[in-house]
Every structure is written in structure tokens, then in C-alpha cells.
């Protein structure tokens, strides 16, 4: 079970990294995620059925997510639509697109199909204990993505994107077009979300249009848990690590709710309530921590 | 910083602890895990039916009842939970939960229920026998017979059908309805919705082009049945439904199908057989088509309002008849 939690936490951790980019780095509340996650799953499933090379399929899923993110940014940048609404619009449109991609069906099974996960399993059998194969694979994959992201945000382009999230006016005064930066950032963010969807479809054994429902809440909760757990840092490597750890912790909390919920007479129906309360509590705690800091500073000044 | 690290490790220790706690001791009673996609009257009835049937057969089973709250991603968590608990058998109610169970539990018997087309869902390769660890009950309704029954009451040239595009069961059924219409020489008019709030508009958009409406076992549309019958009665178009239980409270001309509770009982019987040692391979997919499984409801009040006469033999075979505002069960 422990490996199950970590595997899930790592698969959805890729999605959380995407959410982290849009929410924290770009400061852009992006609801496209609810549509780009199943988009990645649908593209991956259809590619697997068509016999496309699996790694190419993964790339196609990523590219699909990038396109979705860029569309959101175009709607926001050029049509002057508020960011929240732009995301909702793309997400809504993606529902129809996803059903099209799945061949006018709501659910495409991948049971007994050759997937990346099944290939990895056959290749690593005997080298790694069976139940830890996927764990090892996803530790490598998710950490590799995290490291690549860290490297990207250390480049000039990455730095400028980070700076724009903090202070858009400053970037404009430096002669950089924030619209381009937003497109790149949202494209990258949704590409990662779709990649996560592609892995989730293989892990679940099916792609379903309903996969995206509420995924943004899980992503946000994970980002917040990650931030709460580890002290505020400005180093991008620490921040992305927080996002991944937050994802693992979030799925662990949900698991524990399922396992021990009956002790306090909780049914699985109450888990959504728990999710919401968890986010609220974390928000309050981080806020009170900030207030404490303010109070301390005030005391120091008075002295 | 130290405190923070402590917190992190505490958080990560929680899953470790529960894996230890659950590693100990196999239960003496068989443990049956039931995973359903969402809490919903029909699916809850299946769950209850399974438990009642096993209780009636004096199988003292323990249950782990789980529900994915409509989130298909959770289906895998539930499957993992069942695997770590080492359930003796798992039941997957609805397509995504059944698929996740089959994908995760490689060597534990899985019984699916309320899956319309288990072959298309990838659960079994053929309907005539089960897989090594997989078999179950399909909720495919006798679509062609339902339409034929409707034809006995009214001449229909164009049949309208409303279904949810995000429910795989509904999409599969739509294909079956289309084929049945083709076989019977009826023109087929379809429209889709993605949530129950869209149902009323969808009905209004096709009602002038059809002679009758067909409603399949589609959770979203059935939950908005009052909107369907409201529009249909105003346009004097009869409605044929595949869900007799919801038809009791709305003006539907006829409803022919099975009770989900009965399907739960049938699933429970299959679960008991497998727990007693029968191999899932030897059990073909069961369909709810036996005479004792199926319910027929006829609403004579609606027929009168629409100026239709229901043939006497149909009224005779119906086990639920609505007449003068009263429901008579036979």
C-alpha cells in the first residue's frame, strides 16, 4: 500500500508541478487543468490503440497539453478575457475535444494493451521486487522532470518568467512582452498536466472523459501542503521538491481517510468535504504564520 | 528548520504505519471489497442487493465498501487499498471502477456489475465465458424488445433518444438503440447532454421531429426524467423508458427493464459461487433478461391522455399498472 501511495503521489506530482508553475510562478489561476489532464489521457490512449511508438505518444500528449495552455493564454492575452474565465473556457471546450479524440466514446480501456508501464514492468522484473517497479520508475521520471524544470527556471527565459509572476510591470519596463512569457509558462504548465494524465491513464488501465473532474483541487491542495511542510525558500529546486512532496502527502492523507475514516464514522462520501477543509485549514495556518512574522517585526521595530 | 523536517517525516510516516497495521492477520470470514464510482440510488441498490443476497445464502462475509465520489482517478486508490488488504474478492460497480480493479488486482477474482458492454470496456474477451479472474453482470437492457413493445402501442416513424456523452454505458446503449432502429426500419434522432441541467433543452430541441422518445438506463437523463416527461406531455409525445423504478413517479407511457436491486442480488449470487470455489472462467457474463428479472410498467392514464390504446395482453403481462392516478403492483 505504501508503494501505491508513493506511485500515485508521483504520477499526480507531475500534474502538481504544472499547477505550481501556473499558480505560484506565473500567478495565473489556471482552470484549464481540468480539461488538459483528460486530454493527455485521451491522446495517450488513442496513440496506444493506434500502435504509435509509446514514447512518441507521450510526447504527443505533452504537446496536446501545451496547445491547450497556449489557447488559454491567447484567449486571455488577445481577447482581454480575465484569466479565470479564459481557463474555464478552454476547459469547457476540451470536454468536446476529448470525446472526439476518444472516438465519440466516454471511456477507452487500456487493459491488456502494451503500455510504457507494462514494458517497464517486464524489463525490470527480477532486478527490482515486483511491487517496487513502478515506484522506482516514477521516482526516476518525476525527479527527472523536476530537475529539468529547475534547469529551465535557471535560464534567462525561466528567470524572466519567474520575475513576471512577481512583478509584471518590471518585466514590461525591461522591454519584455509579458504575453509571450505567459503563453510559454501556461503551455509548459498544461503540457506537464497532460503528461501526468497520460501516465495516469496507463496506471488506471483506461482513459475516461471524467478523469479531469476536480483534479485542480487535488493539485492546489498538494501545492499548499508542500508549501506548508517546508520553510519558505526562494530556491526553485526546493520549491519544486515541495510540490512533489505535497502531492505525495495529499494522496497519503486521502488514503488514510479511506483507511481509518470509519473510526470517526466517516464514509468515503465525506472525503470531498475533508479535501476542502484541509485546504482551508492550510490557508489559515499559512496566513497566521505570516501574521506572526509581521507581529515579530513590529515588536523588533518598537524596541 | 528541524521542526519542519519533523513534520515532513511525520506526514510520510502515516502511510508507513497503516501499511504495518494492515499487514497483520488474514480475516477468518471472506473479505469482499465493493468499489462503486459514485453514490447514486441505482448503484446503492446494487451494493445493497449484493450484501442481502450473501446474507440470504448465509455467507458471513465482511465488506469494505468504497466509493470513488465520481472521480475516476480515485478508482486506482481503491483498487490499491483492496490489494493491500488482500480481499478475497472484489466487486466493481460501473465501468471505470471495474477497469481499475481488473488492472490492479491481477490474481484476485473481480466481479463487475452495472457494466453495459464488458467486452468494449476491455473486462472480458467474450460474453460466453469469463476471464481467468474476471466475470460479472451486465446491465444491458433488451433495447430492441423495448422498442417493439412501444410499436405495439403506437406507430412510430421517428424515434428520439437523449443520452449523456460522458457516460460510457449511455454511449454504448445509444449505439444499440441506433442499430435496433435500423433493424426495425425506424428513423433515429439523437441528441446528447453532458449534465442533467441540459436535458430539458435537449428534449425541446428534438421533440417536434419525433413520434416517441426512448430513455435508456442513463444516470444523468433518468435523474432529469421530470424535465423529459414535462416537455413530452405538452407535445403529446409518448416516452418509453428502460427504468421502471423511476417511471413510477413520472408520466411515462411504459417502462420495461430491471430493478438495480435485483441486479445486485444476481451479482451477489455470482460472488457466492466464486467464494465457494467456482472459477470465474466457467461463469459467462450474466444478463438481466430472465422473466423474473424484468419489470414492466404501463401507465394507462398517460395512454388515455395521448389517445393511445394499450393492447390487453401487454396490460396483462405488466407487473406494475398505473390507472386513475394509482399504482397497482402485481
Helix coverage percent of chain B? 40-55%
| Strands of chain A, total number | 2
Multimeric status of the protein:
heterodimer
Shape of chain B: elongated
- Whole-angstrom Rg of chain B: 22 Å
User: Regions of chain B with pLDDT < 50 over 5+ consecutive residues?
Assistant: 14-27
Structural class of chain A: mainly alpha
- The SSE string of chain A, one letter per element, is HHHHEHHHHHEHHH
Spans of at least 5 consecutive residues with low confidence of chain A: none
* Helix fraction of chain A by DSSP (H/I, runs of at least 4): over 70%
Main β-sheet, spatial strand arrangement of chain A: 1-2
Q: Roughly how many Å apart are the termini of chain B?
A: 73 Å
Please give the count of helices of chain B: 13
Could you give the order of strands across the largest sheet of chain B?
7-6-8-9-10-12-13-14
Sheet/helix structural class of chain B: alpha/beta
In short:
With 303 residues, chain A is an all-alpha fold.
Task: Give a structural overview.
- Chain A has a domain at 1-212.
- In chain A, strands 1-2 form a two-stranded antiparallel sheet.
- Chain A has 303 residues and is mostly helical.
- Helices cover 76% and strands 2% of the residues of chain A.
- In chain A, 50% of the residues are buried.
- Chain A contains twelve helices and two strands.
- Chain A starts with a helix and ends with a helix.
- In chain A, helix 2 packs antiparallel against helix 3, helix 2 (33-50) crosses helix 9 (178-204) and helix 10 crosses helix 11.
- Chain B has 330 residues and is of the alpha/beta class.
- In chain B, 43% of the residues lie in helices and 21% in strands.
- Chain B contains 13 helices and 14 strands.
- Chain B has helices spanning 2-23, 41-56, 74-85, 95-104, 143-153, 168-184, 199-206, 219-223, 225-234, 244-247, 260-275, 300-305, 312-317, and strands spanning 31-36, 62-67, 89-93, 110-115, 134-138, 158-164, 187-193, 212-215, 239-241, 254-258, 286-287, 294-299, 320-323, 326-329.
- Chain B has an eight-stranded mixed β-sheet, sandwiched between helices. A six-stranded parallel β-sheet of chain B has the order 2-1-3-4-5-11, sandwiched between helices.
- In chain B, helix 10 (244-247) links the parallel strand 9 (239-241) and strand 10 (254-258).
- The termini of chain B are far apart.
- The model of chain B is unreliable at 14-27 (pLDDT under 50).
- Classes of the chains: A mainly alpha (303), B alpha/beta (330).
- At the A-B interface, helix 1, helix 9, helix 10 and helix 11 of A face helix 1, strand 2, helix 3, helix 4 and helix 6 of B.
